[in-house]
Design brief:
The protein is an all-alpha fold. The protein is built from 12 helices and 2 strands. The longest helix has about 35 residues. The protein is globular, with a radius of gyration of 19 Å.
């Protein structure tokens, strides 16, 4: 397969992921509404989970089918970076600073994300010295357990606010003309398209790396990660358009937590040993940048600037700069 065909396949997979991810969110929300779940915080959880499915399927396919752990690690960690970059885009679209318009409760999810990113970084630095349970590193079990604990903690902390927010979203996004059967059928079709495209994406990324001479860690962290994060972009922008800024931001931080759980799951699927010990140490750059971007977001939400001098507030500009620096380092070191 020539480079042109490989590039076309990669772009086609990304577009299919975008198309199917958007429709999965739409029809998932419709199913939640028709079954009576849409009026609770579960309505938001359905959307956040669905937009993260591409990362899960792509990473699992990278390990089980293509044996490309660098693509899997790059996708999970690089998606965290790109999701945080979306915050800058949302800030750019608003006349007032984004951090001043969202609830400070997002700090909890962001901080828990830093904890999971830090555990992954320590596991990568420790390498083969990480305690193992068979072929599974203890850090993976800890990451999965902390993800479950994080979800429970966030729900307990924001139960009332999330329920009220879900009611607002339900009022803005009704699906009266759509039947439950139709929503389920369309949801299922979009899911099949997403599974197929996300499963093919790692192979296309691996060939792209071989044909261009780029490192798999770089391709996974940027190109694959951006492709699998496209549904988050559309859903977050759609939420921001109807004024649901908390839903937009909460979806991004929630997706980052899910991405780190996916990284733990990848390590379990990688039966040769600790996956984080086998991948390129260049991923430490991605982990560091993701932690830095999250920390900047936390400072911004805590400080809550009242106005911005330019189109971007200072925290959004710092997040953008951190992403550019990270991408440059990944290209130089990869």
């Amino acid at each position: 397969m020539t480079l042109a065909w490989t590039t076309a396949l990669f772009v086609a997979c990304g577009l299919l992921i975008l198309f199917s991810g958007v429709h999965l969110s739409r029809y998932g929300d419709a199913i939640a509404e028709k079954t009576g779940v849409g009026g609770t915080w579960m309505g938001l959880l359905v959307i956040a989970s669905v937009t993260s499915l591409p990362e899960l399927i792509t990473s699992a396919s990278s390990i089980l089918v293509f044996e490309a752990p660098d693509i899997a690690a790059g996708d999970a960690i690089g998606s965290c970076m790109f999701n945080l970059l979306i915050l800058s885009f949302l800030d750019f679209r608003n006349p007032a600073p984004l951090s001043a318009r969202i609830h400070q409760g997002h700090v909890l999810a962001a901080a828990l994300g830093i904890v999971l990113l830090g555990i992954a970084m320590l596991a990568m630095v420790a390498g083969d010295r990480v305690p193992m349970l068979g072929w599974i590193g203890w850090h993976s079990l800890v990451m999965l357990a902390l993800y479950v604990l994080a979800m429970r903690t966030i729900f307990a902390f924001e139960r009332t606010r999330m329920a009220a927010l879900a009611e607002v979203i339900a009022a803005e996004t009704t699906h009266g003309a759509l039947t439950l059967r139709s929503a389920v059928l369309r949801f299922s079709f979009a899911a099949l398209v997403l599974v197929g495209a996300a499963a093919l994406l790692p192979g296309a990324g691996e060939r792209l790396a071989q044909q261009t001479g780029l490192a798999e860690s770089f391709v996974g962290s940027l190109f694959v990660a951006i492709s699998t994060s496209l549904p988050e972009v559309v859903v977050s922008v759609a939420a921001a358009r109807i004024g649901a800024m908390d839903m937009a931001v909460g979806n991004l931080f929630g997706s980052n937590l899910f991405n780190m759980a996916v990284l733990g799951l990848d390590d379990i699927l990688y039966v040769q040993g600790s996956m984080l010990a086998a991948v390129s140490r260049v991923h430490l750059v991605s982990l560091t940048i993701a932690i830095l971007m999250t920390a900047i977001a936390i400072v911004g939400v805590t400080y809550r600037a009242s106005r911005k001098r330019y189109r971007l507030s200072w925290d959004a500009l710092a997040i953008l700069a951190a992403y550019v620096i990270g991408a440059t380092l990944l290209r130089a070191l990869g």
